[in-house]
Structure formats: structure tokens, C-alpha cells
């Protein structure tokens, strides 16, 4: 019946007796409700736009201004700048009615002038980044200037409650660094990686570039920085992500893991329903802009631009370049289980409650039907080469039921996969956690829709995870969603809704496919390609519970810098050399900011690493060298966040050179260098809802990604509480130079050696 309802909602025929009209009341009611919901959302978007447009002021201040201005005018006094008198000649009359209109127009002019002055002043205030460089050590206080700045920012932004996008118009643009500054920073970062001869050659290339073609390229980039809201983000999205033709699976997509130290007391259907409902409520918060923007120290806003595309978003493959397609609304999700795709309506006058969604999930789990030909492994196309998928999409999915079903998947709020394997963690058997990570990163190669903004994955034992496409946003945004999903499970909101059920949830509908033998052959080829990628990947999730952030703070060292130094030491011991290292930082202090690269391999860090295996160096000297390296690293991280990075500037210069068809030996050399150690820290505690004192085991293991270089490592880590660290380490089996299990051992030893260095008597000699 569900298929029939979806096929025919209204029909008519002409007979000898007249008109014969048939219609399905239920489907027409759904259409009516969809229309009402659409208009409600349009009105809400309009009201939010007004709120954001006048922020930090209140809209009601306009009516007060109009009343005061009119009262002043009709009392015989002049309003400021005598605006009413200046407005009146522009109106067709001078009677009381037109004087009232003139007073209101003058009031609106005054009000708008104040509003735009406040917004511009707030933008100027947010340009100040000096607070970033001041010490946050216990007992330290901000400078007098920073205190005054904080007070003024609070005055300008604190008298109205901001919505999600309220600060967007007040965020400053990402500043364009001076060419000389970027070249100086680059040469310093390259010094520990090059011997004397190669470094002199690089200095020559850099000097020729800075004094030659670089000047012209910088001028074009200055124009772009003036014209666009962010001189990096659009090019970064297009050329780094959308124009890439390699498979998304493993190479681009990333994954996230559940709170592994807490046992779930729900089955697969119940946990899936709870997580789906949590995601839908989060989507409503985003759509209504009721989600509070993230404020650093409760005051400095981060850009919220990326939140818009969390839901209802898909990456569409193209022959030469992909595109990100976002729909303003979607009233369904798509669920994949045992090779079958289902359309699940999740809105019926309101968002369905968890117990109602559970009924739909149980229907799918109990369905004994078989997949249609080609259906089971269809998603392997999204895992393979982008051009191959684009051609297949154009040939086999451009008409008929295949197009309808593909549209259903791509327009879904998100995709859900009900896996038939458990997601397990056992401290006595670490391989189970490794398998957990691999299952989320790639699954079987055909059971995640890798084009979708994210696929919510539920194991057969009720544990959760996700696989996310990377082009639309960075990991921190989806981690924000993930914290809400996790905390809804902790707060047991599902149990509170269990007794409430006042609608019958729509029955899930199987998607229809008509894939001929040639289409199935293309799918099987994609499966082979996906299997080859999976077979070449190795992944290790290392749980370090000997100590965590608590000890690092006692050592008076930045936890992130501490771990980056440990990774430098581990890599040096693993490979016997230093390598170009990538650490992602964010630039969301600026409008439409995404990421910038921090280069943890510095002159100071290399000196410290060498000292750790030199028995002639004292422990006191090693501590001094590490502290110096951490200070340098922290300064580099702060520079990157404040728009003073290296790599995004060089990347944009390279793009300009390609537009102008100009070759630069320096840029070609720099941008061809492989990132053999690619690292990223997973943020934790963005929502403020996670209380580790109340729920000490509410710790997500973070997430991970594949290696960037064929002979390199991908390392994601999360500082989960005071005493636990997680490292997600990936490499390619085809490289005989890398081994994630061996590297995990080096990380363990490096962390142990660093700790012993700090706890040993400061005058003791010998290896740490």
C-alpha cells in the first residue's frame, strides 16, 4: 500500500457519465502539511534575517526611536540634525499624517545609522587578536588593554541574545599576509627538513619568487581579498575538494566513534531511533537559528557559516569537478539495511518521536525481502573514482525509477546505515576497537553513501558512529552535532518520550531500481576498486590511559604542543628522519573561515627530539629544549588562527599563477612536498553539555581519517578528559616504510619518555 500511495495521490477520468475524480486523502494531507511547514520555515527565516540584520540591537528599539522622534517633532523641538525638516520637502504633503510619516522616516534613518555604526564597531573590535597571544596559565591575568577590550566587546554584543548567524555580518575578513612575512615563515619552517645545500637552493627560489612573479600574484590576491568575503575558502573548497578525482572513501571522508567506555542499554532499533531523533532536533535548532554560536571565552564568536550544510546536503559528482547541492528542506531520511534502501518519512505535522521512529526501524529490520539486482552494492559508485561515478550517474541514473530513487537518497536529510556487525571495544582485545574504526571509515565499501554530508551508522549492538564527507565542512562542525547526539543518550530523553505516541508513523518505503546488466558491471568494477582501497588500509586506535591532560597541565605545557612533540619524537624514531608535518587549525575567528596549516616540525622541535636520544644531554636541558619547542609551536598555532599562516597563502598564490598561466619553480616545489605526517586534534566539549565530573565515562574516542601520503601516516587524536588520550593512526599496507601498529608503540614510548623527563631529578643525565 505504501508504494501505491506514493504513486497515485490524485487522478481523474472522463466517462459517459461525466468527470470521475479520485484522490488519496492521506497523501494530499501530507502535501498540505508540507506546504504549511514550508511557509512556516520561510517566515522563520525572514524573522531570523531581520534579527541578524539589526544585531546587536533589538528590533523593538526601532519602534521606541520612532515614538521618541515623533514626540519631539510634534512638541515643537528639532530632532537631531533637523532630519524631519529635511525629509518633509521630499514628501507630497505637509499635513499631520505626512509629518508623522516624515518623523518615522527620520527615526528609521537615525536608527539605521546607529545600528550600522554598532555593527562596524563590533567588527573593528573583533579584528583585535592580541588576547590570543597572552598567557592563559593558572594565575596569569590579561593585560589592561585586553581587559578594556573585553569590556567594550561585552557592551556592544551583550545586550541582545545572538542567534546562530547573528555575528556573521560582524566577523572580520581573513587578513592577507604580506608576501615577505609568508616567505620568512616558510623558510624557517623548511630549515629542519633540508640540508645546507638544499636549503640554500630553496632560499634562492624563495628570493626569486618574492622579488619577481610573486609581487604580481600578490597584487591579484589583494584584489580578491577586498572583493570576496574570504580569499581562501571558495578556492580551497573547489580545488582541494571538489576538483579532486580520487575516491572519497579513505582518501577524503572521515569518521567518528561513540562513547566507547559506556555500555549502551538499548538495542539497535532503539538506539538508532534515539540518534535519528537527536539529529532531527539539532537540524531544527540550526534551521531556526536557535543553536547558540560558539563563543571563545564566552565572548569572541566563531563563524557559523558551515552549519548551514550539515543536513539536506550531498556532493554531486561531475566529469571535471563536483558540486555541493544543498536543499532548504527535507522531510525524510534514507535507511540502508542488508543491501536495501528505504525512504523513511520523519515528519508528520511534527518531528516523529523516538518510539515512533523505532517502530519504523523495526519494520526495516524485520523485512525479509531481498535486494533488487545491483541495489546491494550500488553505493560502491560513491566510493570510487569521481569521473567514473559521474559518467555512470549520467548514463544509468538520469531517467525513470533510477533517477527518482537517486533523488530520494540525495535529497534526504541524511543517510542511516543499520550494520549487521557489532561495534565493540574491549580493553583486553585492542583489535576490536581497530575493527570498529575501519568499519566506520569504509565499511564494506558499498554500505555507506560517501557523497552524503554524513551517514549515521548503528552497529547491531546499538553502538553508534558516523562517516562524513569533507568538502562541505570541517570535522569540528560535525563533532558539535555528535556531542549533542551522545548527550541526548546520556540524558535519556528517549525514555521520557516512550509513553507518548499520538500519530501512526508512515511505513518505510523500499526504493525501486531498474539496473540492467551493463550498469551492474559498472557497479561491480567499483566494488573491486573499493576492495583494493580497503585492503591497502591499515588502522590502529591506540588508547593511552597512563596519563592525560592533567599531567600536561602540571608540566605547564600546552597539551596540544605536548602531543605534537610526542608525535615528532615518535616519527623520528620510526623513520630515522624528520618530515613535513601537517596539523589542522581553524580560522573561524574570521568570516567563512575554515582551516589553516600549522607546521609542528620546527627548528626548536628538531633540536629537542635529537636531545632525547643523546645521552650527553642532561634532563634539565631536555626540559628547556622541549619548553622552547612548545612555545614555538603554540606561537605557530596562534599565528595560523589569526590569519598569519603559511600554506593557505601559498596555495592561493599558486591558484592565481595557474589562472595567469605563469610557472613558478618555487610554488611548484613547495606545493609538491608530501605531508608524510598529517595530524589533527578532534575538539571536545564544544557544547558545554558534557560534564565529565558527572559522567566520567562520557568520553568519545574521537575519530580518524586515511593517510594523506602513500608513504605517510594519518594521525587524529583527542584529549578526552584528564587521564585518557586516543590516537587514530592510519597508513597504507603497500608502503614498506610505514606501520601504524609500530608507530603506536613509538607514541606510547615517546609519551612515557616525556613524562619520565619531567618527573626525574633535573640534574640527572642519561636518556629520558
From TrEMBL:
<feature type="transmembrane region" description="Helical">
    <location>
        <begin position="96"/>
        <end position="122"/>
    </location>
</feature>
<keyword id="KW-1133">Transmembrane helix</keyword>
<keyword id="KW-0276">Fatty acid metabolism</keyword>
<dbReference type="InterPro" id="IPR032476">
    <property type="entry name" value="CPT_N"/>
</dbReference>
<dbReference type="Pfam" id="PF00755">
    <property type="entry name" value="Carn_acyltransf"/>
</dbReference>
<feature type="transmembrane region" description="Helical">
    <location>
        <begin position="55"/>
        <end position="76"/>
    </location>
</feature>
<keyword id="KW-0812">Transmembrane</keyword>
<protein>
    <submittedName>
        <fullName>Carnitine O-palmitoyltransferase 1, liver isoform isoform X3</fullName>
    </submittedName>
</protein>
<feature type="domain" description="Carnitine O-palmitoyltransferase N-terminal">
    <location>
        <begin position="1"/>
        <end position="46"/>
    </location>
</feature>
<keyword id="KW-0443">Lipid metabolism</keyword>
<dbReference type="InterPro" id="IPR000542">
    <property type="entry name" value="Carn_acyl_trans"/>
</dbReference>
<keyword id="KW-0012">Acyltransferase</keyword>
<dbReference type="InterPro" id="IPR039551">
    <property type="entry name" value="Cho/carn_acyl_trans"/>
</dbReference>
<feature type="domain" description="Choline/carnitine acyltransferase">
    <location>
        <begin position="174"/>
        <end position="748"/>
    </location>
</feature>
<comment type="similarity">
    <text>Belongs to the carnitine/choline acetyltransferase family.</text>
</comment>
<dbReference type="InterPro" id="IPR023213">
    <property type="entry name" value="CAT-like_dom_sf"/>
</dbReference>
<dbReference type="InterPro" id="IPR042231">
    <property type="entry name" value="Cho/carn_acyl_trans_2"/>
</dbReference>
<dbReference type="Pfam" id="PF16484">
    <property type="entry name" value="CPT_N"/>
</dbReference>
<keyword id="KW-0472">Membrane</keyword>
<keyword id="KW-0808">Transferase</keyword>
